[in-house]
């Protein structure tokens, strides 16, 4: 161990053991490497929110930090691969589109691709957006293979790359652009990370917390367990979920309410049996008063209905969800309540909140785990010592606020641009208005075909294009750039690209077959 | 081609900004428009003297398809690895180079590791980890290799060139590609009655040039954007009080240095920009603290060769045009705003203005959202550079009335926030569209003696002895790599010596 600075954190307590809590424990144990005593306090009584959970591709970076093996992770969490989100009935009932991960085109500048694609469309030769992305095409064909980089790395390590056809060796293969994330069982994921963290010295206490003691300066001194024992620490991480035991209840940090733009405030979740092979996409189906998710795992399917309680009763929502399951339910429906928004400050004094304790955005774009992960990354960059310099937490809070707002805007767009008028809920969404930042982006796109990127965006222009196109928000023009650089060469290049995308995707095995070779427990 | 496409572009003014715009539009947009005209008057001098640039110019030149060595020969250019700051910190000179300080170690940035060793009373300099700094100190230069993993592939470079030659070079390029040059002095700007758009510029003697899109490169006066369209000017002199400059070339020094030098003086600072055939010099000063005569005398007394003419006086006000794009007119260069050349940003701002204009290229409908987005992006670029320049003055510990004023003046809120964060932890807060990355900010903070109260605690997780060994290893590699480069003069002789 290095120099023991007299300011360094000696002890750290994580409150709450869901996905967020164990992600924090695992990452801190890895990075702090024994320099700080880490304790996680969780209560089985409270139970976890985690159901079937979908992620976005950034999770791979988190696993790389921890040094996790992908096969082991998939086995332990009963995970499947995810290439994007399929949106059904969002524009109008009967319309479907895909928001795939990764870029459009092959090594192409996004602006140029977009201008080309929009131009062809305006000229009366529209092509499906899905044909321009290896990820999207693989998703619509139900195929999957690991991106080239990963495959070659595996081959270099002489570990088998899994079932399916041999990997293409062409270094210019469009498959290099394939981007993926996972569907996982959140409870199993937390358990998996718990094993990891405990193996690296994280101390777990099972208890409810009945009190939080503050020191005179407003810092948290200790949390008090059910048996009356106080657990003190230099630094606290609040992963207690929506309740936000430390940041909200003890430190009285205000909540910024976004429900004027995101009216859904309830969800009901239930697992059901799989009736077929798991597909490599999350499904989001717009419903009468919200939307329904479908997250395929190896052994079952996670389902949930996110809805607005002003428009639908819990009983109706529960019944409506059960009606639309593909297989027999495996559990009683569980109800969750929430309010879209974020804590005014995610970090106050010696306490930082991660996950639902920091803010809530409905899982429409699978951002929850991602936001935990980026929160942790930010915490490592701005890691505190015992001075708790307010300049450090101010920077953490500035970046966190921007990141939440950018993700919020992207999610709001799904509702705000929907053309549905069939229920009071959807009529409400059309009338509700949007934040200024989103209004700016949407107008800029409608008038000019340009996608503006602000600070701390989670979703890149390709994602915005997928959504605009899927919801039929069309610009009045395409960007003239394509005419300037254009001509026949450009058309030949792009059309060639489309062909090579299809050809390369057709070499991939089916998702289920790939998964079977890769991740199914071999003993079963 | 869309029915409402821009048919004719008129560029007003032929300095570096005007010919850069002409060349870039000729290269990229020409196919789409019928005509590009540049109006300039030989009577009106251009500001361009010895001009230093940022590495982004290489991308601009590449877009045009220029051959780099030919460009260097034609513009009497030298190579630039960064800027040497003398007298800004009374204790020592420092360097702002076009490279970082080396890769992170276990996720911790090198400047934090250095701070940690400094706290342990290790006296090495962070600058020894910067390849651009070490190479410039040795007067050596060679272009970086393609391998970014290697220290010899981890830096970038820019140029110092003769601005008038650059304009002339680009004029040749643009004219070859069909840009039409019209010689004449503009005496009036005609606006369309119905919407106030620029209709035409009227030349002395009665001729006029009309067009769909006008690009105002007329310099400080902003003939179209300000005089005719009254876009407004945001004055920043409360933060950047320097309002004059004297410029003079002097005889060349034997071996031109691969860097620009900025030397702080009593009432401002002096630039020194070595070209192949001579050296550009100038004194940027604040007229409230020194008379023009004294300033000129100071400049002449601080040249390292014989002056090649009398010093020329320039007057300016720091600030930016409120709307760089208004109606059918886009302002570039000095017509869009002025920031003193302390960090060689003028040409860079022209490049980014042109790049954004091409990305947001209008048609004759001039959708207002295009201008709005353009102006949003340009405002951010200007402001981030403004703040970076203010930092040089505000954090300097130099003595003197101007310097005390700058130390005590209120500064923009965003910069105040950035400085406080750096003082707390050495963390660089970056905003959107900032032109300078973290290593640049660190160079200036450290150079001026601004050190944080604490370093990143993650740096403490690495053992001191191991860290010392690693830093020794890196400085050794950097020193060896720098030594392996040819001298700047030898490189120029071999590849791109101007013919005379």
Secondary structure elements and pairings:
The complex is a heterodimer of chains A (524) and B (500).
Chain A: E1 11-15, H1 19-32, E2 37-42, E3 52-54, H2 59-66, H3 70-77, E4 80-82, E5 84-88, E6 96-100, H4 110-122, H5 134-141, H6 148-156, E7 181-185, H7 186-199, E8 203-206, E9 209-214, E10 220-225, E11 230-232, E12 235-238, H8 245-250, E13 255-257, E14 266-273, E15 282-287, E16 290-296, E17 300-307, H9 314-323, E18 334-337, E19 341-343, E20 347-348, E21 351-353, E22 359-360, H10 368-381, H11 390-416, H12 424-431, H13 436-448, H14 461-470, H15 481-484, H16 488-505, H17 511-519
Parallel strand pairs in A: 1-2, 1-12, 2-8, 5-15, 12-21
Antiparallel strand pairs in A: 3-7, 4-7, 5-6, 9-10, 10-11, 13-19, 14-17, 14-18, 15-16, 16-17, 19-22, 20-21
Chain B: E1 8-12, H1 16-28, E2 35-40, E3 50-52, H2 56-64, H3 68-74, E4 78-80, E5 82-86, E6 94-97, H4 110-119, H5 131-137, E7 158-162, H6 163-176, E8 180-183, E9 186-191, E10 198-203, E11 208-210, E12 213-216, H7 223-228, E13 233-235, E14 244-251, E15 260-265, E16 268-274, E17 278-285, H8 292-301, E18 312-315, E19 319-321, E20 325-326, E21 329-331, E22 337-338, H9 346-359, H10 368-394, H11 401-408, H12 413-425, H13 438-447, H14 464-483, H15 488-495
Helix pairs in contact in B: 1-6, 1-9, 5-14, 9-10
Summarize the structure.
The complex is a heterodimer of chains A (524) and B (500). Chain A has 524 residues and is α+β, with helices and mostly antiparallel strands.
Structure characterization notes:
- With 524 residues, chain A is an alpha+beta fold.
- Chain A contains 17 helices and 22 strands.
- Chain A has helices at 19-32, 59-66, 70-77, 110-122, 134-141, 148-156, 186-199, 245-250, 314-323, 368-381, 390-416, 424-431, 436-448, 461-470, 481-484, 488-505, 511-519, and strands at 11-15, 37-42, 52-54, 80-82, 84-88, 96-100, 181-185, 203-206, 209-214, 220-225, 230-232, 235-238, 255-257, 266-273, 282-287, 290-296, 300-307, 334-337, 341-343, 347-348, 351-353, 359-360.
- In chain A, helix 1 runs parallel beside helix 7 and helix 10 (368-381) runs antiparallel to helix 11.
- The radius of gyration of chain A is 24 Å and the shape is globular.
- The model of chain A is unreliable at 155-169 (pLDDT under 50).
- Chain B has three domains: 8-77 and 161-234 and 318-382, FAD/NAD(P)-binding domain; 96-155 and 385-488, no CATH class; 244-315, Alpha-Beta Plaits (2-Layer Sandwich), CATH 3.30.70.
- In chain B, helix 1 runs parallel beside helix 6 (163-176), helix 5 packs across helix 14 and helix 9 (346-359) packs antiparallel against helix 10.
- The two termini of chain B are 46 Å apart.
- The relative contact order of chain B is 0.18.
- The model of chain B has no long low-confidence stretch (mean pLDDT 95).
- The chains are: A alpha+beta (524), B alpha+beta (500).
- Chains A and B meet through helix 11, helix 13 and helix 15 of A and helix 10 and helix 12 of B.
């Amino acid at each position: 161990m290095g120099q023991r600075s007299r300011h360094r954190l000696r002890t750290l307590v994580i409150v709450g053991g869901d996905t967020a809590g164990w992600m924090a424990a695992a990452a801190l144990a890895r990075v702090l490497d024994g320099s700080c005593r880490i304790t996680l306090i969780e209560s089985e009584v409270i139970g976890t929110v985690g159901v079937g959970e979908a992620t976005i591709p950034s999770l791979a970076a988190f696993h790389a930090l921890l040094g996790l093996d992908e096969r082991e992770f998939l086995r332990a969490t009963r995970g499947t691969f995810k290439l994007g989100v399929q949106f059904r009935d969002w524009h109008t009932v009967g319309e479907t589109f895909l928001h795939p991960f990764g870029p459009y085109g092959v090594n192409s500048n996004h602006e140029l691709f977009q201008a080309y694609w929009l131009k062809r469309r305006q000229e009366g030769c529209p092509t499906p957006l899905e044909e321009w992305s290896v990820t999207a095409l693989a998703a619509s064909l139900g195929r999957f293979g690991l991106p080239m980089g990963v495959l070659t790395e595996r081959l270099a390590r002489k570990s088998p790359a899994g079932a399916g056809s041999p990997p293409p060796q062409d270094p210019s293969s469009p498959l290099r652009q394939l981007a993926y994330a996972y569907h996982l069982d959140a409870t199993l994921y937390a358990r998996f990370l718990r094993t990891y963290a405990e193996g690296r010295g994280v101390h777990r206490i099972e208890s409810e917390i009945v009190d939080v003691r503050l020191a005179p300066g407003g810092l948290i001194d200790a949390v008090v367990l059910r048996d009356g024992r106080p657990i003190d620490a230099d630094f606290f991480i609040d992963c207690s979920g929506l309740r936000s035991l430390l940041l909200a209840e003890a430190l009285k940090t205000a909540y910024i309410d976004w429900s004027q733009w995101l009216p859904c405030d309830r969800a009901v979740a239930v697992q059901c049996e799989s009736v077929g092979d798991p597909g490599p996409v999350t499904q989001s189906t717009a419903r009468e008063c919200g939307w329904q998710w479908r997250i395929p795992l190896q052994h079952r399917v996670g389902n949930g209905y996110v809805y607005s309680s002003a428009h639908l009763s819990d009983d109706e929502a529960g019944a409506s969800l059960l009606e639309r399951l593909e297989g027999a339910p495996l559990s009683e429906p569980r109800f969750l309540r929430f309010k879209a928004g974020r804590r005014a400050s995610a970090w106050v004094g010696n306490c930082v909140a991660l996950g639902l304790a920091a803010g809530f955005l409905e899982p429409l774009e699978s951002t929850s785990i991602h936001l935990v992960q980026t929160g942790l990354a930010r915490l490592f960059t701005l890691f505190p010592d015992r001075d708790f310099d307010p300049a450090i937490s101010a920077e953490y809070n500035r970046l966190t606020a921007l990141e939440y707002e950018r993700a919020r805007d992207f999610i709001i767009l799904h509702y705000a641009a929907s053309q549905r008028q069939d229920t009071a809920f959807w009529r409400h969404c059309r009338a509700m208005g949007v934040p200024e930042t989103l209004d700016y982006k949407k107008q800029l796109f409608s008038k000019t075909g340009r996608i503006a990127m602000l600070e701390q965006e989670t979703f890149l222009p390709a994602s915005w294009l997928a959504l605009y196109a899927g919801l039929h928000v069309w610009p009045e023009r395409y960007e003239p750039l394509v005419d300037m650089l254009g001509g026949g060469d450009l058309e030949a290049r792009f059309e060639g690209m489309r062909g090579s995308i299809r050809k390369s995707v057709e070499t991939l095995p089916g998702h289920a077959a790939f998964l079977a070779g890769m991740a199914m427990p071999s003993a079963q | 081609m869309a029915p409402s496409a821009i048919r004719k572009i008129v560029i007003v003014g032929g300095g570096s900004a005007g010919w850069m715009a002409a060349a870039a539009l000729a290269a990229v947009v020409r196919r789409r428009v019928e005509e590009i005209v540049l109006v300039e008057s030989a009577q009106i001098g251009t500001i361009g003297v010895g001009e230093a640039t940022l590495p982004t110019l290489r991308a601009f030149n590449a877009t045009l398809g220029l051959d780099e060595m030919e460009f260097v020969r034609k513009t009497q250019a030298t190579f630039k690895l960064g800027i040497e700051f003398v007298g800004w910190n009374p204790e020592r000179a420092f360097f702002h180079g076009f490279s970082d300080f080396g890769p992170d170690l276990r996720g911790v940035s090198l400047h934090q590791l250095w701070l940690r060793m400094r706290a342990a009373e290790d006296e090495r300099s962070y600058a020894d980890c910067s390849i651009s700094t070490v190479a410039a100190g040795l007067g050596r230069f060679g272009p970086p290799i393609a391998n970014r993993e290697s220290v010899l592939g981890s830096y970038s470079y820019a140029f110092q060139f003769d601005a008038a030659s650059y304009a002339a070079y680009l004029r040749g390029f643009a004219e070859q590609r069909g840009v039409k040059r019209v010689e004449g002095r503009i005496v009036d700007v005609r606006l369309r009655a119905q919407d106030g758009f620029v209709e035409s510029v009227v030349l002395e003697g009665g001729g006029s040039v009309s067009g769909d899109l006008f690009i105002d490169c007329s310099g400080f006066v902003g003939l179209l954007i300000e005089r005719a369209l009254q876009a407004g000017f945001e004055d920043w002199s409360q933060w950047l009080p320097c309002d004059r400059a004297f410029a003079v070339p002097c005889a060349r020094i034997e071996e031109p240095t691969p860097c620009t030098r900025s030397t702080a003086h009593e009432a401002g600072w002096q630039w020194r920009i070595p070209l192949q055939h001579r050296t550009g010099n100038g004194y940027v000063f604040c007229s409230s603290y020194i008379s023009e005569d004294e300033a000129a005398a100071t400049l002449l007394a601080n040249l390292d060769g014989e002056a090649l003419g009398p010093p020329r006086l320039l007057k300016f006000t720091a600030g930016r045009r409120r709307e760089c794009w208004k109606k059918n007119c886009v302002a570039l260069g000095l017509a869009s705003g002025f920031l003193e050349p302390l960090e060689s940003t003028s040409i860079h701002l022209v490049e980014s203005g042109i790049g954004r204009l091409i990305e947001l290229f209008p048609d004759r409908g001039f959708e207002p959202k295009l201008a709005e987005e353009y102006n949003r992006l340009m405002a951010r670029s200007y402001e981030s550079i403004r703040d970076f320049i203010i930092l040089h003055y505000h954090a300097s510990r130099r003595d003197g009335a101007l310097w005390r004023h700058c130390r005590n003046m209120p500064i923009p809120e965003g910069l105040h926030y950035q400085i406080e964060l750096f003082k707390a932890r050495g963390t660089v807060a970056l905003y959107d569209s900032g032109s300078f990355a973290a290593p640049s900010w660190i160079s200036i903070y450290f150079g001026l003696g601004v050190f944080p109260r604490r370093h990143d605690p993650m740096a403490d997780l690495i053992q001191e002895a191991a860290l010392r060994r690693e830093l020794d290893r890196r400085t050794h590699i950097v020193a060896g790599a720098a030594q392996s480069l040819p001298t700047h003069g030898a490189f120029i002789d071999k590849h791109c010596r101007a013919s005379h």
